[in-house]
Automatic annotation (TrEMBL):
Gene Ontology CC terms: cytoplasm; nucleus
SUPFAM superfamilies, A to Z: Pseudouridine synthase
MF term (GO), any: pseudouridine synthase activity
Name this polypeptide is given: Uncharacterized protein
Matches recorded under InterPro entries: PsdUridine_synth_cat_dom_sf, PsdUridine_synth_TruA
Biological-process GO terms, alphabetical: mRNA pseudouridine synthesis; tRNA pseudouridine synthesis
Length: 203
């Protein structure tokens, strides 16, 4: 399977399913996401205590930059049928890390011939192959090495430029790392999210 998948998608293991109606999407009961952010000027202490995620990543980024109060996430969640006008933060730093599935699918059987599989446990065991795991490790080690070399080269250039900026213009505040999380046009003056115009109700 990995031979036909894109390079950035790899199958680590697979599981035989007893019921062909089992849905990896609809029979998933929990999902664990991991978010990766550059520290930059983000308030990591606040994030660790109040992280909510979801589609409010934009508010989270603003909160971490201390442009918003820590309560802004709860306020956004309490809007229910409406939302403030903001563009979602880009999602490349978001990683679906793990999923849990129910033992028995809740998908309805299409006909009575499926009656005999209703009493069976749909899930079995994950199956792994050593060669596949070794190959995946090899690929990721290669990508990690390339990324690290590129990061070190860029960091070296940044050090030189930051020192030059400080020497020529006595400037120190050059934390722009988090700008990559925001793809909208930056305004000269920041307007708090809850003071912005409210969009119409969700449909």
């Amino acid at each position: 399977m990995n031979r036909v998948l894109p390079k950035n998608i790899r199958c680590i293991s697979w599981m035989p399913i007893q019921n062909h109606l089992f849905s990896a999407r609809f029979d998933c009961i929990t999902r664990t996401y991991r978010y990766f952010f550059p520290k930059g000027n983000l308030n990591i202490t606040v994030r660790q205590g109040l992280d909510q995620g979801f589609s409010f990543q934009r508010g989270q980024v603003y909160k971490d930059q201390e442009k918003e109060e820590p309560s802004v996430i709860n306020e956004l969640l309490n809007l229910y049928c409406s939302k403030t006008q903001y563009t979602p933060a880009i999602a490349f730093h978001l990683n679906l890390y793990h999923g849990e599935f129910r033992d028995k699918s809740e998908q309805k059987t299409m006909n009575e011939c499926q009656q005999e599989i209703r009493d069976l446990r749909d899930l079995t065991k994950w199956l792994y192959k050593e060669n596949n795991l070794r190959r995946l490790i090899e690929i990721l080690q290669s990508e990690w090495s390339q990324a690290q070399i590129k990061a070190i080269m860029i960091r070296s250039t940044l050090d030189d430029l930051e020192q030059l900026l400080e020497k020529k213009f006595n400037a120190f505040d050059v934390n722009f790392q988090t700008s990559l999380l925001q793809d909208d046009v930056k305004s000269k003056s920041y307007q708090k999210l809850m003071n912005r115009k409210i969009c119409g109700k969700w449909k």
